Every structure is written in C-alpha cells, then in structure tokens.
Task: inverse folding
C-alpha cells in the first residue's frame, strides 16, 4: 500500500536500486499469529477489523458454539507457578480474549502458556476455506487458540512503530515449524521416498478425498466442548509421502541418536522419525553458485553438539535447523563448515559477528528455544527482549548503512487470526504472521498491507542477487494466478526508492 495517514516521517534514506542493500539478515522467531501479538497495533488490520463470523467459532458439526471450551490442561504450561487451571478457563464467551486483560487472566508477557497443535492438516481445517471459524473445533487446546496479547509493552512493537510492520504477511506453508523452516530454505516440501516400505509407514496420515481433511476417528468427541478431536491417523507424512509434520534431521544435532557403534555424526536412519537426506535445490545452493556469501546461525548449535541439549536451557530445537536436512550440507562437506554456523549461547556468536561487521551478505539467525517465543517452553518477553537487542546491535553495526533486516515468525503456533490467506497451492500460504522490515531504507512508521509470505523473503533474495527462480516460487505464483489471488510481494513495497 502507498504511504498513508498512519505513516510517520519519511525515511532517512532511499534506494537508487537494490544494489544499495549489501547485507540481508533474516531473524526467524516462533509460533505467533499476527492477531496473537499485533492484533491491537495502531493502523494495522487487527482484531477490531475482524468480522463477527470470523471471531465466532463453529463446532465440529458447524453449529455456533454457545461458549468456548475450557483450555484443556489450563492456560499455563506445566510447572508454571501459580498455574491457571483448566477450571479457571471454563465458560469463556465465544470470541477472542486478551490473556493480559486486567479484568481477565491478567498475565504478563513473561508467562509461559500451554502449546497448541500447529500441524499441516489441522491448520487447513481451522482456516476453513478462509473463514477462520474452526480454530477451536480442530484444536487440542480448547479456547487457547482464541487468545491474544496487548503487545504494546513489547520492545519489538516499538521497533515496528519506527520502521515497517507488514500486516498481510502469511506463513509459507500450512502447519508447523519443521515444514516452514524447510520452506524458508527451498520453497519446497521434504519427501520420504517409499515411506510405505520403511519404519515410517505408521506415520502416514489418513486423509479424506479432498486432500485437506484428516479422517476423524469413530471415538472422537462430537463437540469441541466435550474434548480434543481424534483422528484415524494424524501422521507426519502425506499419503504420497511428503513430510508435513515434524521429522528429525538425518545428521547430528538431531533428536534421533546415532546407531550404537555407528557414525556419531549421523542420526539412526531406521528410526521412524528420521527424514532421509534431501536433495532439492536450496536458496543457499543458489547463493553459493552466484558467489554470494551466506550462513545459517543456529543459536546454541555448538553447545548442543558439545554438551547435549539439557532442558530447559537452551531448549534447542533440532527441527529448526533446515539446512541440516540436506545432503549438500552433510557432515564432512565444505558447505557445512562454511554455511552452518554457531549462533552461540544467547546469540553471543551472532552478536559478535554483527558488532565486528563480519556478517556474510545473507545471514539467517535462529534463536535458541528459550528465546524464540514458542508457547509451551518459552515466553514472549524473553524472546522479544533478545530480538530487540539484536536489532539494536544491527543498527550500530559497521554494515548497517546498507542492510535490510527481516524479523518474522515461522508459523502461527495454532493461534487464530482473522485474515484469510491468499488461495495458493497445495502447501500454502497459511495463517497470517507478523513481519517487520528494519533498514535505513525502510519506510518509517508505516504499515504495509501488500500480500507477502515466507516465500517473499526468497523472492527478495532472488531479485537482489539475480538468482534463478526456485521451482516452488514459480509454482506458487502460478497457483495464485489460477485461483484469482493477488501475487505475493518481494518485500520491496516496504522500502523507499528514489523517484526517477
């Protein structure tokens, strides 16, 4: 969208062309829909703009729920003191509710809530063709999916006020973290060849003929009020063997241990959750072929390799390291050594590279689990503080004058959002998520409503560095056109260009 009434003063700098941007940084946080933390952001299309039919959730028989079901197990994650019990969450009205409302639960951004399903088929069932009215029906957490926060106390909220907040940015794929990290790496979906002849066979999902809906088990509760839905087979693989829910990397670090007495750098390939090495072309491969320097910085990567992943700190998530699934980055390869880097505990190694002006031309950063804002094991406040501190360092970096920073989330974490995703291909786009563009060239005090998704990051890199187009980017564009949906942007709508 063009600069509007809610835009602030003009940017300090403007681009002659994209070559003015010499360093691109992507910070990838976890599991928040746009409405969940930016739904009250001034000037953005937030909860106040949601239709009553979107806010009002349907039951599994498509009747209107008279009230929300309880949050099964309670609002707070296990071990949080004092807990908010399941009984305390009963009889909530059928509408979104603020977790931090003084006249409600009155919990701070520092509380860790329960997690919620964020899976491939359930996400599509919840979106319900764009109506977004079945999030509660197909959740394992009851009312939790309708929760949101007043994010105005977040440091990143204030960053968004200074730069550009994108309020029509969608997750690249339906589902969870695993698939959306893979999508960021390649605009593609992992595959498990001959899965029906492997240990992973029990993890093949049972899906209705529409290819979108899981088959409901005979003993599934008929109503969301009565309990969590049950399915015939809610597996990690589609019937044609695409990996759409969490699988583990074939290389260490992985949640799957090595074969006893085998190569300690590999995960046991015969375990049902080990994904075979992938061979698709990644954005990293294209950058390397063009001579563009790049790296994936995994928070706590080296610590976990050296010492293991002791809980709750650092809470390292193996399936958040997408290039560790690809054969081109197998142990012992030069590409692995060059491109898969340690972000350090609490991001210390990444911060050092920022401060010393030693970031490659393209840098991806994944915070460790305790700092990524993922419900169930992390709070919002800690991750927000960490990411805002990263931004502060980036603004002081020797590379800042020619930098573009994208701060976004991998997916919605199962949380409701009212905006219908553009109708694309089999894989997405999914639910709307936050994205903030931080740069000397970013429009200031601006809300950008151009349709974008995770693929848009790859589109930007493709345009800026004159790369070949990944097949998934082309396929998505064709699917959007075929469905009458608007084409996705490449982030440049958030930037100032000198008018010629």
Result:
């Amino acid at each position: 969208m063009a600069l509007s009434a809610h835009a602030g003063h003009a940017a300090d700098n403007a681009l002659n062309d994209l070559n003015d941007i010499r360093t691109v940084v992507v910070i990838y946080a976890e599991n928040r829909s746009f409405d969940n933390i930016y739904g009250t952001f001034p000037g953005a299309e937030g909860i106040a703009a949601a239709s009553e039919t979107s806010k009002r959730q349907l039951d599994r028989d498509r009747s209107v729920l008279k009230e929300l079901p309880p949050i099964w197990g309670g609002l707070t994650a296990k071990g949080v003191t004092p807990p908010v019990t399941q009984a305390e969450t009963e009889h909530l009205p059928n509408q979104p509710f603020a977790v931090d409302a003084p006249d409600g639960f009155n919990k701070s951004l520092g509380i860790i809530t329960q997690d919620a399903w964020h899976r491939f088929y359930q996400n599509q069932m919840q979106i319900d063709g764009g109506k977004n009215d079945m999030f509660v029906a197909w959740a394992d957490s009851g009312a939790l999916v309708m929760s949101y926060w007043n994010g105005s106390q977040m440091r990143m909220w204030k960053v968004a006020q200074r730069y550009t907040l994108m309020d029509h940015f969608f997750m690249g794929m339906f589902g969870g973290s695993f698939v959306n990290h893979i999508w960021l790496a390649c605009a593609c979906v992992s595959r498990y060849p001959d899965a029906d002849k492997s240990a992973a066979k029990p993890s093949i999902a049972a899906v209705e003929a529409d290819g979108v809906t899981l088959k409901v088990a005979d003993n599934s509760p008929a109503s969301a009020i009565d309990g969590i839905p049950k399915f015939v087979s809610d597996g990690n693989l589609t019937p044609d063997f695409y990996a759409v829910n969490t699988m583990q990397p074939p290389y260490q670090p992985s949640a799957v241990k090595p074969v006893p007495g085998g190569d300690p750098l590999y995960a046991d390939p015969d375990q049902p959750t080990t994904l075979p090495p992938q061979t698709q072309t990644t954005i990293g491969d294209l950058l390397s072929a063009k001579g563009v320097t790049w790296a994936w910085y995994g928070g706590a990567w080296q610590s976990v390799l050296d010492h293991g992943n002791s809980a709750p700190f650092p809470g390292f998530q193996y399936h958040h390291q997408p290039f560790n699934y690809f054969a081109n980055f197998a142990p012992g390869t030069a590409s692995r050594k060059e491109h898969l880097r340690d972000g350090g505990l609490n991001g210390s190694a990444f911060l050092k590279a920022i401060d010393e002006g030693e970031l490659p031309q393209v840098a991806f950063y994944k915070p460790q689990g305790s700092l990524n804002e993922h419900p169930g094991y992390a709070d919002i406040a800690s991750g927000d503080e960490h990411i805002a501190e990263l931004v502060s360092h980036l603004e002081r970096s020797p590379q800042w004058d020619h930098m573009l920073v994208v701060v976004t989330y991998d997916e919605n974490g199962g949380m409701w959002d009212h905006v219908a995703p553009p109708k694309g291909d089999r894989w997405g786009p999914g639910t709307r998520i936050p994205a903030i563009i931080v740069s000397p060239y970013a429009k200031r005090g601006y809300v950008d409503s151009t349709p974008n998704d995770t693929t848009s990051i790859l589109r930007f890199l493709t345009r800026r560095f004159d790369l070949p187009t990944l097949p998934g980017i082309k396929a998505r564009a064709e699917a959007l056109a075929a469905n009458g949906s608007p084409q996705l942007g490449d982030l440049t709508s958030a930037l100032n260009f000198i008018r010629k």
Confidence is low (pLDDT under 50) at residues 1-11. DSSP finds twelve helices and twelve strands in the chain. Residues 54 and 132 are 6 Å apart (CA to CA).
